[in-house]
Amino acid sequence: MRREIRFRLNGAAVAAQVAPHETLVEVLRESFGLFGARESCGQGLCGCCTVLVDGTAVSGCLYLAALAEGAEVRTIEETNDLDAVQQAFVERAAFQCGFCTPGFVLMTRQLLDEIPEPGEDDIRHYLSGNLCRCAAYPEIIEAVQLAARKRRGGKR
Amino acid sequence: MKRATQAAETGQVGRSLTRRESWLKVTGRAEYVHNLRLPGMLYGKIFRSTVAHGRIKRIDTAAAAAMAGVHRVVTGEDVKTIVPDPYYGPAFHDQPVLALDKVRYVGEPVAVVLAADPHVAEEAAALIVAEYEELPAVYDEVEAMTSKAIVHDALKPAGTFPDLKHLKGVKNTNVALDFRLRRGDPARAMAGAARVFEHRFRTQQVMHTPLEPLVSVAECTERTLTLHTASQSPSFVRIEIARLLGWPENRIRVRVPYLGGGFGAKLYIKLEALVAVLSLLTRRPVKISLGMEEQFFTITKHASTFRIKSGVDRDGRVVARECEVWWNGGAYADIGPRVTQKSGFTAPGPYDIPNVAIDSYALYTNLPPAGALRGFGIPQLVWAYESHSDMIARELGIDPVEFRRRNLLREGRPQATGTLMKDAAIEKVLERTAALMEWDRPFERGAGTVRRGRGIALGFKACIANTASLAAVNVNADGSCTVYTSTVDMGQGSDTAMAQIAAEALGIAAEEVSVVHSDTDVTPFDMATLGSRSLFHSGNAVRLAAEDAKKKLDALRQELGLPPDTAIADVFRAKYGMRAGSIMGTGSFIPPYTPPDENGQTDNATPFWMIGASGAEIEVDTETGRVRVTRLVNVADVGTPVNPRIVETQLSGASIMQLGFTLFEKMLFDAQGQLRNASLAEYRIPGMLDVPASMVNEAVVAAQSTGPFGAKGVGETGTFSVSPAIANAIHDAVGVRLTELPLTPEKLWQKLAEAR
Amino acid sequence: MVPFELAEPRSLSEAFPLLQEDGARPLSGGTALMLMMKAGVLRPARLVSLRRLGLSEMQASRSGLVIGAMTTLRELEKSPEVRRGWPAIARTLRTLANVRVRNVATVGGALAHGDPHMDLPPLLCALGASATIAGPRGERRAPVESLYAGYLETTLAPGELITHIHVPPLDGRQAAYLKCTTRSADDWPALGMAVVLDAKKREASIVVSAATDRPTRLSEVERLFRGKAIDDELLNEAVEAARGIDIEGDLHGSAAYKKHLIGVFLKRAIHEARNASR
Questions:
Q1: Model's pTM, two decimal places?
Q2: CA B521: distance to chain centroid?
Q3: Which of B240, B665, B716, B746 is catalytic?
Q4: Least reliable range by pLDDT among A102-111, B375-384, C31-40
Q5: Could you say which residues from 97 to 156 on chain A have a Cβ atom under 8 Å away from some Cβ of chain C?
Q6: Please, which chains are in contact with A (at least 3 CB pairs closer than 8 A)?
Q7: Is the ipTM of this complex over 0.95?
Q8: Of B293, B536, B631, B707, which one is least surrounded by beta carbons within 10 A?
Q9: Any B CB within 8 A of A36 CB
Q10: Cβ atoms C31, A62 nearer than 8 A
Q11: B716 assigned to active site
Q12: Residue B9 burial (CB < 10 Å; 0-12/13-18/19+)?
């Protein structure tokens, strides 16, 4: 039942033996020791398992790993240096327990790629599929706004 | 979004230092037990009861055990081979590691399948068949008082708490604890009151939903057991596992990295006893990682019913108050009896009432167990007494803020226990809330189908007593410093706060301090990270340990004839002739406490008081009953904030969590005790779109004289008053009163329809 | 999830035989299917992925919008043609599930799932959309409305697949979809209400969801509106008629409450539609 899939993971060509029923978040954990995407609700609602597949954010807990064959997969572990979004999250205290944070960071990057100057309403809608039980939401909104400013500043 | 901050940044305490673990968390590198994999590890999948109350007739595990890849299937009988008397609990030894003889709620663990592949374990668990002889069940906390359905055949107090000992072996009751308080002569005062008001309020069963679901891993050698567990109480875990196994504590090691949220869910024993036994049975590392849905069957928040009656004199002063509170503890007591007592004695609210009667009952029912959830019962109480306050004020035609002013429990006055209020900025908190709400200004009330209202509420809590914290502070040869504490950082920022406290005491920068995570082989005893106690208790222990280290350093300087301002690194170099050595300071903190007498009276009920008020502005859609909170103001007495920014986020986060409990979160059971919404798809928690457009979170200028550098706990304070503030605002907007949480659109619509 | 076989056919003709065996299920975006499999409600022996069938193109023209069934909800939402030509669709998608789900979930999947709480089916029904359905015995075209037989039940025969969805142009009609959530803001709806008004013909197309076991047309109300200018009196009559349909309560609201909401949201959706661009 297992088959080999090949894909790019955080910029490197990789291969993994996966069973059809294994999800992407499981394979990242079991085969690659990547824990930044983590299963929580298991239903695609909380965003803790957010992974980028071919530049698009997906819920890793609902995404069959076998379908990543040939794809470009990126996770929070892609970089060690903090980008504008991560810096903003740190500066604005936009997390508490940190379990949901990688998902929020990845989704915020997607949001700012799409809408460089999001209004509060844009932020709330775009991030409505990410849950934070510590409820750092007001700080996250501030962090997204700060990250947007930092990104604009960086370009100038 | 508008927000207000106040910060006085001086020294190490009072700095809004960013969290120590920031890089780890924003890069996904923080360590959680969730991540842990060990060589040869087996995964356990729990098979759960499908009936609410029944005698186990048969458990057929043959098909599951026969499945390829299954290592072993374990039932309660197997557990007994490791632990002959496998019952645990902080207040009562009532909870079996796996069900024995009886099941007491739907979802109770009955058996476990172990396999190297978690998918196999899950598939095999579905093949287990259990037969039960069903017994009558009881679900409602008030019915449980008199029900013929008895959840436990006999009560089994743990003996840890002296005031529970007399309950040992008591039969034919679901009452796990009845707490009683009497002050003055409430009956006579009530009879003589100008007006008497009586209301009844209810709260619903809800769940913590930490996003890192409960998870524990056990590994053993022939004489040691190591538990890696997402626990708020590593010291308790070690003590309780040692007791169950009959081992000395030093053969058991409990390690806790970061927690992906706790909120009270990860306290005492949850999965630890189970994985310990499974590991000892198989001699393999064993991990059990609950799914989100399974958390609903593990620990919840008490549903409650509160009957409150007040006698008021002609001047609008409350002269007598009767409180009767029933706490729905579910099938196992967990820490419910503590909730009943420790919260119960604050049931009359932060008011100066000379005549008080409180009866607070912890009850067993056939529902998932209830324990502590961010507030330890206080939000349930404040919900009732602050709704009640508003109802009286409006009935008497007194402004709600003015009514509270008139009755306020002021500094130096006796609380219901007789304990005199000290370092409790109740008045400041109320006045600041009113000011932030611009209470004296006219308020725009909306028109047509959108009506606006505003409300406030004020609550307080006594920190749990009698509890101890120990800490050690090691000063290294280069002058850097390491703090050893068993306080668990579950997101509240304790690592950062402890570093700041140690730094302040040592006169170094907080950046030079690192904090070692709980490891019972390394870090000293701490009662638990709960009830907003850690900053005060562990913070004091850390402060004492740092001061001890400083004293030893000063002594060393003196011994070596060095000037008092010699840099730490130079002191060590002078002593050891090279970069070597270290100095360990230790601190032990247990605040004074007097247990209550048979009338609940004591001159020292608590080490400190926590005060929290909320103000809410809301809009009601009068056609749908939907409530939108447009502004939420939270004001608290947290003493002197150690880290003002983190304090603010704690208040904010707690209040938004409580917003979910207020407006929509509810575990829904059918008539057979089956939970109908055990998933985040059907049990909704607040998301971005539910957060009020405007929030203000503020700590009043205050100091806790006994706290570390004037500080006290804050983790729960933001939860206290949100629910009644919103209900009061709804009444203000549309003139109807809801007395049962959550405040759903449908309930409000019904009330509005009745009022038309 | 229990193990299964995963097939990725590259054409419809390859797909049909794979789908015809017992225990085979088509997999499009998988966001709903995975949930049912994880919960153990569905235990398929084989999943047949449709992603290599080349059904993800979208075309807007004067004669309407043709959406390949494997078009993701997010592609539909962000399409400039859709925003211009069918703004109600783009607006509806903004609050449908979340961005990650919309990135993966497909239009075909959203129609074939059959959960009455979904947002797109009632709106597409009200717009008069139809679907091309392919099966081993050939193709057929059917109104979206006719796809639903009951709760999670469709009229698709085993082995049949939706390949395309056809949405007629608005042509001056005005459309709106409103939903009522009763718990968190982004909860599954207690009620969905899609309204399409044709001022020229004096006709209305009104479909309700989440309160019934499938998207349900309010035919009585449509009859009332036919040929008339909508005024307050007529609206009140319509509310009464709307509340006459059979309603089911669920975790989001009782039948009585939903009956009430139908009236409220009928008025609101009509109001919204009248203010919508044509």
A1: 0.97
A2: 26
A3: B716
A4: C31-40
A5: 107, 110, 125-126, 128-130
A6: B, C
A7: yes
A8: B631
A9: yes
A10: yes
A11: yes
A12: exposed
